[in-house]
Amino acid sequence: MDTKRNKKNYREAGEIGKSLLRCMSEFEKQTELLRNCILEYIDEFEEAQKLCNYLRESCNAREIKLKELSRAKTRFVMEVSHELKSPLGAIQSLLQVILKGYVKDPVKQREFITRAYNRAGELLCLVRDMLDLTRIELHPETLPLRCGDLRSLILNVSREFEENAVSRNIVIEYKLPDKLPHAKINRPAIKRVLENLISNAIKYNRDGGRVLIEAKTVVNELIEVIISDTGLGISNEEIPKLFEIFFRGKNARHSKREGTGLGLSLTKKIIVAHGGNIWVESKLNEGSKFHFTIHICQKHKKGGHKK
Predict the structure, then answer these.
(1) Which of 35, 104, 150, 261 is the right S-S partner for 183, CB 3.0 to 4.6 Å?
(2) How do residues 258-295 score in pLDDT, each as one tens digit?
(3) What is the Cα 16 distance to its own chain's centre?
């Protein structure tokens, strides 16, 4: 009887043991599942935290950028107001003298009117530059690029300044290859760039000085144009600021030569819109050398073919 009871107890104990083992196995499985879920939640939490950090940093960066833009806008409005005030004040003063009858001599009257007319021209150039600068900055796609003969454009633009150069005994020299590849350009915009750079090379040059205009191909991809002068030069401290809006170097300001401080800023915007680059080398009181690059037309690259 005891033997049967013992066997029964052993069987029951065995069944209980097996049940416990099954429970432990199931518990381990559930524990593993729970652990994996927790790890997934941790990963998701970390990703969410990273995203939150990124969004916070992005918002902070945007806030800083917006503040910078706001300050830049305020500075721009103040600088524009200042630049407009000077020629407008001069025009008003000149015309007021005539209107109030302070100048009776017709020759003097004509002189005053001519001066007012010239200041009005400066004002018009300033407004045009500001409008172009804003347009190119906001809509660079408004500069359609086409294949163009850069060599002939350089020569045509430089001829516009020959009379001015001759009046100051400044010699304009050229170093242009006969077969310069055509460039991918917006002709009116690049004409403006050349006008600004050649005009400055003459304006800030010495009487009896020299201007050298060069062009060459670079690694069969780009054309580099270099315009050098023997003029006032720019200090190393001023070079990084040279393409900033309304910036004029110390020598330029003290030279009493007219300028708005917009030309080089506009020039850089145009070159960047062409996918090119612009930079300057200069030595104070020795002269400056402006470089800019633009892309060669695909069909004019070596090894290419005309369509």
Answers:
(1) 150
(2) 556 678 888 998 999 999 999 999 988 889 999 999 99
(3) 81
